[in-house]
Amino acid sequence: MAKKKKTSQKWKLYEVKGGKIVRKSKFCPRCGPGVFMANHNDRWSCGRCGYTEWKK
Q1: Most buried in the list 12, 15, 16, 36, measured by CB within 10 Å?
Q2: Which among 33, 39, 35 is positioned nearest to 48, based on CA atoms?
Q3: String of b and e for 4-38 (b: at least 16 CB within 10 Å)?
């Protein structure tokens, strides 16, 4: 069976408010601006450096 190609879904990380682009996700404090953290049920995690913030 042929493998399915993954498509990028970066459009989900941004929204437009009042003619300006607003970022929805948090940035990683270690990596800096431009590196988003993944939003999981119980934590925020960075896929680049592995930094994790637990939700309460």
Answers
A1: 36
A2: 35
A3: eeeeeeeeeeeeeeeeeeeeeeeebeeeeeebbbe
Closest Cα to residue 32, out of 13, 51, 56, 17? 51
| Residues 1, 8 contacting (CB under 8 angstroms) | no
Strand, helix or coil for residue 38: strand
Q: What is the pLDDT of residues 43-53, one digit of tens each?
A: 999 999 999 99
One-letter amino acid identity for 33?
A: P
Q: What is the pTM of this model?
A: 0.65
